[in-house]
From TrEMBL:
Record field: transmembrane: 6-26
Domain VWFA: start-end pairs: 90-280
Gene3D superfamilies tied to this protein: von Willebrand factor, type A domain
Annotated keywords: Cell membrane, Membrane, Transmembrane, Transmembrane helix
Name used for this protein in its record: Ca-activated chloride channel family protein
Amino acid sequence: MIWEHPSLLFLLILPVLFAALSYFFGKWRQKKLRAFFSDEMLRRLSNPVWSRGRTARTILLYLGITLLVIGAAGPKIGSEIREISREGVDLIIALDVSRSMQAQDIRPSRLDKAKFEISSLIDRLQGDRVGLILFTNTAFLQCPLTTDYSAFRMYLDLASTDQLPFPGTDFNAPLQLARDTFRSRTRQEQQAAQVLLFISDGEDHSPSIEFTLNQLINDGVFVYTVGIGTQAGAPIPIYNQAGQFTGNHVDRDGREVISRLEPDLLREMAQAGRGVYYEIRRGADRIDGFTAQLVDLERREFATEQFSDYANRYQWPAAAGLLFLLVSFMIPVYKPVKIER
């Protein structure tokens, strides 16, 4: 059993307080009356009490109050299957901003192309909330879930490979942050479908993402991925603070590093997450199909959903409490008095 409003259970002390106050008030009243009247006079002035009736009324009165408090606290027992309507999509876009995203095998660069595609996607959204996560070997919530697309574009424009100056790429970090963001939604906000769009060139240096990915999928999140880059690859340019090209990235041996698209893990993520893997190999490639997937997903999977929840049984104690109170007021507590003539 759980309670809808457990804080109200402290009111269960009320019947005890009422009983104590009634007892002490009765004693005080008797003491005051005896100060002015004899016992015989009090007997003549007072109606004879029907002790059984008074006892029954007292028990039913306090029992009724107790049951009303229990009903107000909302006892939830057992389970019930409820059907709710889903509304809209909550879309989180995880964007790789590691140094390899500066490679120019896709013009003007992988990152610039990804930002262009995201901006085009936002143009086609209609009332769905969207959020932005940037990641390298760590992750940062650049923009929380919002329907303010102008604000989202502002945060998107600020995304750069200098924003998270940590080398390497760890897919676990954005996956965990996306899960935490979805789970932080209010109950009303959870009426929307959960979709993660993961954009990267596929270079992942984390040991394994299986556990984190499965947690996300078990929470009902659909995972779509976009691989951006080419198999031939390209060097990774380096720019100074003024934005001027200073050379290409080299390894410890002084050899130029070539960054290539690594699609295998991205494909596996989409397959496990009941999504679709898209690939951008040329500047003309688009992800227009993803918008259609969002519309179809909402219509197909989230028109309605059934879920099991604790059944609220407040009606039973509330109804019993009201009945006991009603009956208690109907029980006589005084014996009928015969008038002598």
